[in-house]
Amino acid sequence: MLKIKHLRKNYGNFSLDCSLEIAPGCITGLIGQNGSGKSTTFKAILGLISIDGGTVSIFGKNIQEFSAKDKQDLGIVLSDSGFSGYLTVNDIIPILDNLYESFDKAFFMEQLQKFQLPFNKKIKEFSTGMKAKLKVLIAVSHNAKLLILDEPTSGLDVIARDELLEILRDFMEKDEERSILVSSHISSDLETLCDDIYMIHNGKIIMHEDTDVLLSNYALLKTDTEQYKNLDKQYILRYKKESYGYSCLTGQKQYYMENYPGIAIEKGNIDEVITMMARGTQCVN
């Protein structure tokens, strides 16, 4: 569906070198700190910025060869893009109807009513949540095969986020070949939505894992200095010095539960994995 090989972009003191793949029928998350390269990757995928090397292919075709017709199969949400705030929803419906051959006007209007988005109010007067839902509804209303969503839930309250995630789940249920690439700072969104997750740090992918594996097998080991000294570190991904001793990230929770019953083991979540992978020290056995 989407394949990126060593996508490179240099900005002064920042260098991106990213490789990832989105399979048909999958929702893939891209996580990382601000400035890690998420938005740069999205813009490069879409040809919005020039690249310094590597390849991007969507639907088996190099992005540089994409025609206007090919782009009909993409649904895009970027944080810094959208229709003019002086337009109303009624104003943009005929625009969408002309832009997209497969625009489903009836579905779009049905969803607007479902999520209580006004037809005659200027978009600049919408709340943050209303603007976000409108962007996503536009992306899913023309039978796209691939959605590329950069921080679609940013700034939303828990109810608005849940409604937006519902839109995305409905989109996937209608066609098992559809795919989504989504970035988000809100780990709970990714945990419930994504099949797999890539983590980017300082412009490079440093982890790729199935979400189920991450949530079931990853853990934080809390040890004192003596326990850390005697710890088998072959499955320790990162460690960090703490006031009590050490915090260690592992992807093999069961191994340490079985072999080190005296060590405190906490179930890992995406936020903790991000923190440890970004700030922890790589363990060299």
Describe this entry's structure for a reader.
A six-stranded mixed sheet has the order 6-7-8-3-9-10, sandwiched between helices. 34% of the residues lie in helices and 29% in strands. It contains eleven helices and 15 strands. The chain is elongated, with a radius of gyration of 21 Å.
Distance between the termini: 37 Å
- The number of helices is 11
Strand residue content: 25-35%
Pattern of helices and strands = EEEHEEHEHHHEHEHEEHEHEEHEHE
The count of β-strands is: 15
Low-confidence stretches: none
Helix content: 25-40%
Radius of gyration, CA atoms, in whole angstroms: 21 Å
Structural class: alpha/beta
**Rough outline:** elongated
Overall pLDDT metric: 88
Spatial strand sequence of the major β-sheet = 6-7-8-3-9-10
> What kind of sheet is the major sheet?
6 strands, mixed
